[in-house]
Structures are given as structure tokens and as C-alpha cells.
Amino acid sequence: MGVDSFVNWLRDAAGVLHENAAYLTELDSSIGDADHGANMDRGFQAIVAVLDETSFDSADELLKKAGMTLVSKVGGASGPLYGTFFLRFGTALAGADLTADAIGRALHAGVEGVLARGKPELGDKTMYDAWAPALEAYDAAVAGGSEVGPALTAAAEAAAKGRDATVPLVARKGRASYLGERSAGHQDPGATSTTLILQSAARTLA
User: Fold this and answer.
1) How many CB atoms lie within 10 A of CB 72?
2) What is the structure's pLDDT at 67?
3) Fewest C-beta in 10 Å: which of 145, 172, 185, 205?
């Protein structure tokens, strides 16, 4: 695994988020500001523009640039949260061999950045409801001897279950929390985009 693998991940994720932009916005229209899909699409298309113009010597340099791009280009909560994830993820990989253990530590660092910025807890009906089970599944897979690809596949599958589990929850964070009980019955858009990004990682970082 090298820089090209992470370039492929970001390009693939950008394509998937573009294809699902309307769907993510539809989800967000029920419990948010109806802009999550457009925001994610804009941010990742901006990352693609950077990739088209710039070459990177290391994965950490690439991922930190992706994070800074998201912070600067994406409005709402998703830009700062995903931007922080990629910034912390990249920083954790600086100087590291890109092993399954190192990727796991970087994923944890990224999600810790999300926690520090957004202060979500499990069950709040946020992207963390996908991230938390994904990290647990990744760690368990690596502990069982899995390489990066199978571990990321396990993480993506766990994220999808966490995403689905947000449907009956009452939101306790963000714009959706203003709806109270009316937020129940809707899938969280952030948990959905998190799952899409992890599924992309499983496809491209194997």
C-alpha cells in the first residue's frame, strides 16, 4: 500500500458521494438542513481537483491536504468533522509503515478528532453511530490476523449496521435534535456518508 492507494480511495469516495448526493440530501431534508449531499459532493470534488493538480510524496501529506480542503470548502457540520477526521488520520500515518495496525491507529486518531470537535456519544444519531462499531470491528479483525482489506470490509459492514440502527433513534445532537421525537424513523445522513466512505476504503485500500 502506498500513496496511490489513498489517491484511489479519495477518487473512489468522491465518485460514490457524487452518485449518492441526492440520496444524502433527501435523508438530510427530513431531519437536517437538506444540504449534506451537496456539501459532501462539493468537498470531495474539491479534493479531486487538488489530486488533478498536485502530486504527493506521502500518504500523510495527501490525507492532511484532503482534510484541509474539506474544512475550507464544505459548510455545515460535515466539513469540519470530516476535515478533522482526515487531518488526524493523515497525521497519525506520518512516518509509519502502512500496516493494518498503523491504519487502525490512524482510524482511531481520526475518529478521536471527530469526538473532540463534535462531542457525540453513541446513540446520539450521528456519524459516530457508524464510526464506533466500525472501529470495534476493524480492531477485532486485525486482532484475529486480518490484513487491511478484510479488516476494512469488516469495518464497513459494521458501519452499515450502525447506520441502519440510527433509524429508530431520537436525535440528541445537531439540527436533527430540534425535532425531538419526530427525528425517530429517519436514517442519519452522517452515518450514511461515513458508511459510504468506509465501503470505498474497503474497495480501494485492500
Assistant:
1) 11
2) 96
3) 145
Rounded to whole angstroms, the Cα distance separating 106 from 84 reads 12
Which of 82, 134, 126, 83 minimizes the C-alpha distance to 108? Answer: 134
pLDDT-derived band at 59 (thresholds 50, 70, 90) equals very high
How far is Cα 136 from Cα 5, in angstroms, rounded to an integer?
23
Whether residue 67 contacts residue 87, with contact meaning beta carbons closer than 8 Å, is answered with yes
| Digit-coded pLDDT (tens) for 96-148 | 889 999 999 999 999 999 999 888 788 888 999 999 999 999 999 999 999 99
DSSP type of residue 168: T
**Is residue 191 a contact partner of residue 127, using CB atoms and an 8 Å limit?**
yes
**Three-state DSSP string of 41-85:** HHHHHHHHHHHHHCCCCCHHHHHHHHHHHHHHHCCCCHHHHHHHH
Rounded to two decimals, what is the model's pTM?
0.93
Asked if residues 120 and 170 have their Cβ atoms less than 8 Å apart, the reply is no
Cβ pair 172, 184 in contact under 8 A: no
Instruction: Let me know the angle formed at the C-alpha of 159 by 153 and 165, rounded to the nearest 5 degrees.
Output: 145
